[in-house]
């Protein structure tokens, strides 16, 4: 922490202000909060957040930023971070073990296809104790649509606890189950309600601080990005600029704080040479925002998922619950072959 402030990848004008205010090394900065730093160094809060992120960055990440991390080291780092299991073996297999931590994933799909359900399921699954192969983490759920239903979370938590109860073999697992109850799962699931895009943007600026104060958080969900940004905009270039900035902040958040970021997006109709097609909303440039894009869709009465990265058409099928009492993804999944 004795590293000189001038050696960090910070804008030169900000460096000058930091040095003038007497911040010479990382040790002078690491305990400060963004607001305090912004006041003391006369820089904007956004600049203060960026400075603190650069300074608090882990050694491996600094080396990666400087281009001095080998692919082998990066592979080791990604394996260490782990993934969040979805409780659907075909999907986990397609995703290489589950939702990746340290990356951003966009989940798109038509209304009612199961985006929120998957996000709540992941918010529970991220808490599965390490001795069961989970991450033993916590989650932050940013709800822009008002669609987070706590009873759904209770049902999914109950199912996860029962599932782990059936798997428990040794005394370590029995002991871990004492701390893995519906109550602890719900108390480790932090909720934020944002009513419009201004509140959502503000929340993303506060995220770095929240994650620094809650280092156990391994998953951040935004359900959905589209709801806040699809309407209310006459100036589409302003929307694109705001979305680009948001995407950058989320990617930075995912890498700096080792969290999986899951964003949901709605679908819109696009007319292409006289034919209409359902495509993810928010335009083409947003299509590059997340590390990977998953599209949920209906295949008859089944839910299917397509992974839209270089490997196209990997998927899983889940059986429709036919309105049965349980909304539990785990218990309604049929283990079908990827489409
Ligand atoms: N895999 C599944 N198995 C059984 N039921 C499911 C599954 N996924 C979702 N459901 C149920 O389908 C309904 C709609 O799901 P959900 O709210 O997740 O859709 P959504 O894609 O988020 O829709 P919207 O775009 O309107 O937000 C809910 O009652 C949910 O419990
Ligand atoms: Mg939803």
Automatic annotation (TrEMBL):
This is DNA repair protein RAD51 homolog 3. GO terms for cellular component: Rad51B-Rad51C-Rad51D-XRCC2 complex; Rad51C-XRCC3 complex; replication fork. GO terms for molecular function: ATP binding; ATP-dependent DNA damage sensor activity; crossover junction DNA endonuclease activity; four-way junction DNA binding. GO terms for biological process: meiotic DNA recombinase assembly; reciprocal meiotic recombination. Residues 80-267 form the RecA family profile domain. It comes from the Eukaryota. The keyword Ubl conjugation does not apply. Keywords: ATP-binding, DNA damage, DNA repair, Nucleotide-binding, Nucleus. Pfam families: Rad51. It is found in: Nucleus. The gene is RAD51C. PANTHER family: DNA REPAIR PROTEIN RAD51 HOMOLOG 3, DNA REPAIR PROTEIN RAD51 HOMOLOG 3 RAD51C. InterPro entries: DNA_recomb/repair_RecA-like, HR_Repair_Mediator, P-loop_NTPase, Rad51_C, RecA_ATP-bd. It comes from Oncorhynchus tshawytscha (Chinook salmon).
């Amino acid at each position: 922490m004795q590293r000189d402030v001038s050696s960090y990848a910070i804008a030169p004008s900000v460096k000058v202000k930091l040095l003038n205010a007497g911040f010479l090394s990382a040790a002078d900065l690491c305990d400060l909060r963004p607001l305090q730093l912004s006041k003391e160094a006369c820089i904007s809060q956004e600049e203060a957040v960026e400075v603190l992120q650069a300074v608090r960055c882990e050694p491996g990440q600094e080396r990666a930023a400087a281009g001095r991390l080998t692919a082998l080291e990066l592979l080791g780092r990604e394996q260490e971070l782990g993934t969040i299991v979805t409780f659907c073996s075909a999907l986990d297999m397609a995703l290489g073990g589950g939702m990746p931590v340290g990356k951003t994933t966009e989940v798109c799909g038509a209304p009612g296809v199961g985006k929120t359900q998957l996000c709540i399921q992941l918010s529970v699954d991220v808490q599965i104790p390490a001795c069961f192969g989970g991450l033993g983490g916590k989650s932050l759920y940013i709800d822009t649509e008002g669609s987070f239903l706590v009873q759904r979370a209770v049902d999914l938590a109950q199912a996860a606890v029962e599932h782990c109860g059936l798997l428990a073999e040794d005394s370590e697992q029995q002991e871990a189950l004492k701390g893995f109850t519906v109550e602890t799962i719900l108390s480790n699931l932090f909720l934020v309600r944002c009513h419009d895009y201004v509140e959502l943007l503000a929340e993303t600026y506060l995220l770095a601080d929240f994650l620094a104060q809650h280092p156990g958080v391994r998953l951040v969900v935004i359900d959905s990005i589209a709801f806040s940004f699809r309407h209310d905009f006459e100036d589409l270039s302003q929307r694109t600029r705001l979305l680009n900035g948001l995407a950058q902040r989320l990617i930075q958040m995912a890498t700096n704080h080792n969290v999986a970021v899951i964003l949901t997006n709605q679908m819109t109709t696009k007319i292409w040479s006289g034919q209409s097609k359902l495509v993810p909303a928010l335009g083409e440039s947003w299509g590059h925002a997340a590390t990977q894009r998953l599209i949920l869709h209906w295949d008859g009465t089944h839910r299917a998922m397509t992974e839209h990265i270089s490997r196209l058409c990997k998927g899983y099928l889940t059986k429709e619950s036919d309105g049965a009492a349980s909304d539990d993804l785990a218990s309604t999944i049929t283990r079908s072959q990827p489409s």
